[in-house]
Amino acid sequence: TSHTVLAKEPHSMDSVSSSDAICTSEKIPASPRRGPVSPSPSKFSLSPKLTRLGSLHLTLSQATKATGNFSPSLQIGEGGFGTVYRAQLEDGQVVAIKRAKKELFESLRTEFSSEVDLLAKIDHRSLVKLLGYIDKGNERLIITEYVPNGTLREHLDGQRGKILDFNQRIEIAIDVAHGLTYLHQYAEKQIIHRDVKSSNILLTESMRAKVADFGFARLGPVESDQTHISTKVKGTVGYLDPEYMRTYQLTTKSDVYSFGILLIEILTGHRPVDMKKTPEERVTLRWAFNKYNEGSVVDLVDPLMEEVVDSEVLMKMFSLAFHCAAPIRADRPDMKSVGEQLWAIRADYLKSARRGQ
Ligand SMILES: Nc1ncnc2c1ncn2[C@@H]1O[C@H](COP(=O)(O)OP(=O)(O)OP(=O)(O)O)[C@@H](O)[C@H]1O
Question: If you take atom 17 of ligand 1, which residue's CA is the nearest one?
């Protein structure tokens, strides 16, 4: 399923090798099914103050009313941890409300509270904004801004009408890079998203991208001499940093790896791992890297996108993506530099497109 999540305890004996992970489209059951998650000290805890978080003050009955009593007709999505509804408030404002799944309630508590605590501190146009939070009785609701135009994956699949053109694809990549740069460098505390993927990128009507779903996000190292944090491996197969999988050491470079995989997906339209494809195309990173080395970069471009893009521009985009997805984290650039490089490639692209007119 597309929602299961890989979770691996540090130092556990039943370790999963990265090749196992790559060969399966199904993700290893998340920690909820492995029994209660022990709250780690560095993770935020749910404090009573949280009910007052965010700029929106809704009661449970107002939220219930706004979602038509959690009506299936207002359901816009379902993730591993909850169901998402589109809701209209009394003043007409449209919001998204994520309701925690009851059967996973106890084990979800940390996931959900981590999302709330992190979202509350964030204010950036490329990151989905938290508006409010309700924790009452056996309901946990997160209210966020509603992003109306579906996920990046839906657009790549052609489920949302017009196929994204090349300029839109670069702009989406730039937005995601800016959102992640903010999390890594400018947020009050360093935040690592841990689940950067195309179904977590939401698009606005003007096709600008916002990074969503902070359910797995973690604070980065707090001590200045600390280079990484050691933690359970979480994320989605295909996007997971192999060094993090091997060592359990999490750094911002794990998001950079996932971003590299996402960039290849944006350019090719291929999911990171697709068992329906031929063996040589199954693992998109490997397929793209081989084609790139053969000099056949033009074969990699999403066939749904009819535009002919300058091959120099394509080479630069793929080269940046492979750099981000380098096996060793020290070889990966930081997100700020990725944003700057994308910006420069976009300028080259616009020049080449003007020449071609
Ligand atoms: N703020 C929002 N505005 C509009 N649609 C949203 C919003 N948040 C989520 N959605 C929709 O709800 C779906 C489910 O979101 P959710 O974050 O719960 O799960 P997911 O990312 O698909 O899966 P998982 O959390 O298991 O990785 C999204 O794919 C998207 O279609």
Answer: 213
